[in-house]
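Proteins fold reproducibly. Take a tokenised chain:

. . .
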Amino acid sequence: MPEPVTPVTFPPAFLWGAATSAYQIEGAVREDGRTPSIWDTFSHTPGKTAGGETGDIAVEHYHRYRDDVALMAELGLTAYRFSISWSRVQPTGRGPAVQRGLDFYRNLVDELLAHGIKPAVTLYHWDLPQELEDAGGWPERDTALRFAEYAQIVGDALGDRVEQWITLNEPWCSAFLGYGSGVHAPGRTDPAASLRAAHHLNLAHGLGTSALRATMPARNSVAVSLNSSVVRPLSQDPADLAAARRIDDLANGVFHGPMLHGAYPETLLAATSSVTDWSYVLDGDLAAINQPLDALGLNYYTPTLVSAAAASADGPRADGHGASSFSPWPGADDVAFHQTPGERTEMGWTIDPTGLHDLIMRYSEEAPGLPLYVTENGAAYDDKPDPDGRVHDPERIAYLHGHLSAVRRAITDGADVRGYYLWSLMDNFEWAYGYGKRFGAVYVDYATQARTPKSSALWYRQAARTGTLPPVTAAE
């Protein structure tokens, strides 16, 4: 007779959330004063996205947000993380706000609060106003200064009602996919520019944090969401260990070093010295970046497996966001990336919940006493409605059960994890992949914009309402 399975139960105050980003869901790209962002420009450039697809319409959240919030409430969410479109609020990235743009977010926040859902605002999820890119973009220091002004505008508008704030989402992608490999907007391929962009994103985070705190109630929480990599060496050979350290510095230390500890890793500076001289790090920058945080967001999908380049690499570069002949890893041309073994999602990413546990425990040690949130975690599958119109996605349920169990193990092991945001609330524009990859717990028929909760959404609702993970077969 099998042993009974101990229920996986979470603390009562644990937040059960879902996440989205502005360009991926809003649409209405030319309405109410909004001007193009780098993703509008990039997606309209031939050959940059699958099928030439764009976020022009996306899933029409700009016009359907009330229905979408009602759906969130039906699904038992206690928190919702969304991003602000900078060019909707401040079209040129400078000057006064467009109140119609701010009103959309004011109304969205009011709707969330009316349904008992805690809003979590991300100020920047990759959609830089095109005019700022035309002036040099993130490799230019001025962009960080403009971000601080933008943060103050949004903090003034929403800080009385929104308590959870995130400055940047995945600055690694903004810097190294946007300016290194070029698979993300703005599509530049300049290793030195990618490192300058990383520094100015760090500076934007620090200045933005200070700007928010200057304008908002002290009770509010300011965080950043990092897609920190779980970097594993192919073997314990010293060359492979050195390769893992190189990638760990470029994936993780380049951001958490200055943000959490006030310094870039010396090993990072040495490894990239042939790419850049870091002269753009000015006196006072590191102190400005190293603002005390109220929480840290961690985004996790799959681990990274590397070796010294002498080994045979049997997998793609581990940027996870499309192919490019240009590397997103400046100064690491002697590192090979390998496909980690195991089952994979539709993105080709290996499913490995142990990586999420390892990541949480690492940052429990990296930033002791700092509350943690899993601000993104999820999987893409080839979801299709059955003849009755229902969408069964048992693979996603198994994925969520495994990763949420890993979160609970981390809490048991002493980590202060206070919430989980499923990526994503609903199917949407998946950047360079267009609409071909479905991450949503809610299925979207892009022709009609009809929303249908998948079986994973019903499973997640039961988890959120009870605080206990249902069996993987519960929603089937």
Summary: Residues 311-321 have pLDDT under 50 and may be disordered. DSSP finds 15 helices and 13 strands in the chain.
